[in-house]
């Protein structure tokens, strides 16, 4: 699904990919106030068009480009998006936000200023999954499987053969049901050596009390609310968490920490 507008009382969010719906709901919870009235947030693939294109469609809106992709170059070098096209489009917007300091540094090389950094935040409306008492899936991975991710998952499965049950889904179909039926959510970087933290993939299961295991990132915005592990150690980490039932305790505690974490919410100025 594309060209979807999610509207609150005061703001609108224009998203291209349903994968970013959780981000849209987060924005509604934290920014749908009179202070931010008449604001349009652009997410995902819509940032390949320039500011004038949207200004013509929404002439009375304050338009904020909220950049949520991993930016590194050159374009076409192991990236899901056309980075050059993104830079060209973002350079036309009067107001750009990003979720990661490394992206902000990257954009500065191309003279694209970023007004605010906004990492993922806890949103009560996203706390809605009723986890099963006895999940049938030990390790769940969701999202696109490129060559790197597939290679790592295959290595983990070989080492954990007969010990752990793995599952993979792509798209939004039954995502909540799979998360509810899983002990651990696994996050792997899509690219190397660039290690932007995939916050969009991880913050939703954390909110819902799930243990998230991830490769280390250059900047860890989710702090001790996730379990970080190197690739070689992942099989042992996953088996230890599942075997000791620690996945229950860690996920529950991480949810509370995220709930109490001071948000990075910018002011409207």
Q: Please bin the fraction of helical residues.
A: 25-40%
Number of strands: 11
Oligomer: single chain
Gross morphology is globular
Q: Strand content of the residues, in percent?
A: 15-25%
CATH fold naming of the largest domain: Rossmann fold
Coarse structural class: alpha/beta
Total count of helical runs of at least 4 residues = 9
- For this structure, what is the CATH class of the largest domain? Alpha Beta
Q: Largest beta sheet: what is the strand line-up?
A: 1-2-3-4-5-6
Short description:
The chain contains nine helices and eleven strands. By secondary structure, it is of the alpha/beta class. α3 links the parallel β4 and β5 (96-98).
Q: Could you give the topology of this structure?
A:
Layout: E1 4-7, E2 11-15, H1 21-31, E3 39-43, H2 51-57, E4 62-67, H3 83-90, E5 96-98, H4 101-108, E6 116-117, E7 137-142, H5 147-159, E8 166-169, H6 175-180, E9 182-187, H7 199-207, E10 211-214, E11 227-228, H8 234-244, H9 246-260
Parallel strand pairs: 2-3, 3-4, 4-5, 5-6, 7-8, 7-9, 9-10, 10-11
Antiparallel strand pairs: 1-2
